[in-house]
Amino acid sequence: MNNNFHDPRLILKKYGLYPKKGLGQNFLISPKVLRTILQASEITPQDTILEIGPGTGVLTRHLAAARCVVAIELDETLVQILRQELAQYPNIHIVQGNILEIEHPQLVAELCGIEKNYKIIGNLPYYITSHAIRRFLEIQPSPSLVIIMVQKEVAERITATPPKMSLLAVSVQYYAIPEMVTLVRRTAFIPPPEVDSAVLRLRVREHPLFPDIPSDIYFRIVSAGFAQKRKSLLNSLSSSLNLPKSRIATLLDKASIDHNVRAEQLTLEDWARICRQLMECESYPTVR
């Protein structure tokens, strides 16, 4: 790997460039971490890959082992450099754009001739992490696997279990099975970010976790539960859903949920039982 590691510092020096703080650019300079990302990505010659934030192409060169790669880079200067440096790889398509604004499944279909079973790999600017992850998981067709570098704290929140759940954890785990592959020290990047990072792997669920519950209903209830974190679940749901406490208490009893627990103590299945009770009662139109 070390012999095939194209150090971003050399590329930046070659073209007289410096990382742009305004774009959240932190370039990976660790061959060890790169190797870990590649192993976690489980790349095969049949794969279609969407890379987010290829930067100087340190990872992109190795992704060329896949059948087709679409790399989306926001920085127009780096786009030109990537096209020049990676010109020898006809299966790599460099696209300039903002991942939050691009309908990436359609782009992958257009450039690679495949509409599903693609993988997303990338190093996201930390300020768009949560938004980007939700977009990756909710858009259709969704990827089969997501491998991304995120803040250590965000990875810990996403992979949390009761009693440390959060709205972010529920939102991600509803769509995928998360795993923190490895921690990454800030010294693995230039410039070093202010926090440590982690490689996060999301195995996207092939089928809805709760097919009997519309996703909008599920997240309406979960959001209501987390709306007032310091309150008990009974009080938070009553206040957020504008339903009498007596009604919520009855529903919680039927769902076998303690009135005094807090949202972070519930499992995804607990939320599903609450949703089913609400959908069965006469107040269902209210929560919809």
TrEMBL record:
Keyword Transferase (UniProt): yes
Subcellular localization: Cytoplasm
Main localisation: cytoplasm
SUPFAM superfamilies: S-adenosyl-L-methionine-dependent methyltransferases
Stretches assigned to the Ribosomal RNA adenine methylase transferase N-terminal domain: 33-206
Its EC number(s): 2.1.1.182
Residue positions binding S-adenosyl-L-methionine: N26, L28, G53, E73, N123
A Pfam family annotated for this UniProt entry: RrnaAD
Enzyme class: transferase
Keywords (A to Z) from UniProt: Cytoplasm, Methyltransferase, RNA-binding, rRNA processing, S-adenosyl-L-methionine, Transferase
GO CC terms: cytosol
InterPro entries documented for this protein: KsgA/Erm, rRNA_Ade_diMease-like_C, rRNA_Ade_Mease_Trfase_CS, rRNA_Ade_methylase_Trfase_N, rRNA_adenine_dimethylase, SAM-dependent_MTases_sf
Keyword Methyltransferase: yes
Single GO term (MF): RNA binding
Catalytic activity, reaction form: adenosine(1518)/adenosine(1519) in 16S rRNA + 4 S-adenosyl-L-methionine = N(6)-dimethyladenosine(1518)/N(6)-dimethyladenosine(1519) in 16S rRNA + 4 S-adenosyl-L-homocysteine + 4 H(+)
Family note: Belongs to the class I-like SAM-binding methyltransferase superfamily. rRNA adenine N(6)-methyltransferase family. RsmA subfamily.
Function: Specifically dimethylates two adjacent adenosines (A1518 and A1519) in the loop of a conserved hairpin near the 3'-end of 16S rRNA in the 30S particle. May play a critical role in biogenesis of 30S subunits.
Protein name: Ribosomal RNA small subunit methyltransferase A
Species assigned in the record: Thermobaculum terrenum (strain ATCC BAA-798 / CCMEE 7001 / YNP1)
